[in-house]
Amino acid sequence: MLTLADIKAAARHLAEAVEATPCKRSRTLSQLTGADVTVKFENLQFTASFKERGALNRLMALNETQRKTGVIAMSAGNHAQGVAYHGKRLSVPVTIVMPRQTPFTKVKHTQDFGAEVILHGDTLQEAADYADRLSREKGLTFIHPFDDPLIVAGQGTVALEMLEAAPDLEVLLIPVGGGGLIGGCAIAAKAVNPAIEIIGVEAAAYPCMYRALHGEPAPADIRPPHTIAEGIAVKTAGRLPVEIARHLVDDILIVDEARIERAIMYFLEIEKTVAEGAGAAGLAALIAHGDRFRGRRVGLILSGGNIDSRVLASIIMRSMYRDGRILRLTIEIADQPGGLATIAGLIGKAGGNIIEVQHQRLYADISVKAANLDVVIETRDSAHGQRIVDALREAGFSLHRNESPSL
């Protein structure tokens, strides 16, 4: 078992090379959730993830021969970027094997840091198997993303910094993939404050640590499930992190995709910061289990901010739709000049902003002298959307509303 001394040694190795990221209380998230919320912004690392802590701590332990020959790692992105960035700093050749579905932004950033990137396999396990084979064939040192004591010790420096900045925290909510982050943070936090509660958070599609701690086997799915939290989409947790978790982790919570998306939007709109799916998992758990944490001092680790811009744009639009800020209407109109102008005038007068308009003449079950007008409208909120609907109906228009859950 690693000790606090190992975490502190890692902190000395990382000094000046890794950011001591901000750890701040969030007034708005506290009001929203009923807990006293403090956030550790690991998305503000140079590579936008905590992963470079463990990567650098492991790279610092290489001997001269290993440094010259180079290293290899498998990763869905953040570990890759950490190894690539600090490998370049230390003049260590780096090869990274990534699953084929890895977000483009993470592939590009890893390449920009100077690593050779190989896309192989559909899962982390397939990428890991290929990286292991290349390691043996080429004599490269394999840098595991989570099942390595030096990696775990490096990740534990996150909790060390958190408790220095906020020593009165009662709970830490920590994203869990392979378990390196929660393993290191549990060791550090429990050593500093034995009474602190350590709770892991996993995506519902990949509850690997939960299964390990409850004696459940990993699934033998041929096609892996999809999750926005690809940073914690790990089929099997590391043996070392599992062993640490058995002794020091108090609970594992599971969160669904909708709440992860909601948490990403809260970070974006409230904290004005970008969180990837894995980075938002802790806040997602706080949202899902509000009663459990109400009135308590809760620390969240925003573990990373590397999210594909296309995915983030989709999340923003989906969130607006769920909140009733995007309204989709199908309006029946007479197929004659001026119909669209009348509709646009009514919507504009009611304060709506038309985003998209499309006529449907061929595929609608209506009179040949009529048309369906599909309109997408931006509103302030669901109540404002209802006022727009009422205004159109009062003007005599027949319409169908494609409702969001909040409407």
Can you tell me about this structure?
The chain has 407 residues and is an alpha/beta fold. It has 3 domains: 4-46 and 149-318, Rossmann fold, CATH 3.40.50.1100; 51-142, Rossmann fold, CATH 3.40.50; 324-402, ACT domain (Alpha-Beta Plaits). 44% of the residues lie in helices and 19% in strands. The chain contains 17 helices and 14 strands. The strands form 3 sheets. Strands 1-2-10-7-8-9 form a 6-stranded mixed β-sheet, with helices on both faces. Strand 3 (71-74), helix 5 and strand 4 form a beta-alpha-beta unit. Helix 1 (4-14) crosses helix 8 and helix 9 (180-192) packs parallel to helix 11. It is elongated. The termini are far apart.
Task: Note the main attributes of this structure.
single chain, 407 residues, Rossmann fold, Alpha-Beta Plaits, 3 domains, 6-stranded mixed sheet, 4-stranded parallel sheet, 19% strand
Task: Please write out the topology.
Layout: H1 4-14, E1 23-25, H2 27-33, E2 36-41, H3 51-59, H4 64-69, E3 71-74, H5 78-89, E4 94-98, H6 104-112, E5 116-119, H7 124-138, E6 141-142, H8 149-165, E7 171-175, H9 180-192, E8 197-203, H10 208-213, H11 239-248, E9 251-255, H12 257-270, H13 281-288, H14 290-293, E10 297-302, H15 309-322, E11 326-334, H16 339-349, E12 353-360, E13 370-378, H17 382-394, E14 398-402
Parallel strand pairs: 2-10, 3-4, 3-6, 4-5, 7-8, 7-10, 8-9
Antiparallel strand pairs: 1-2, 11-13, 11-14, 12-13
Helix pairs in contact: 1-8, 3-5, 3-8, 5-6, 8-9, 9-11, 12-13
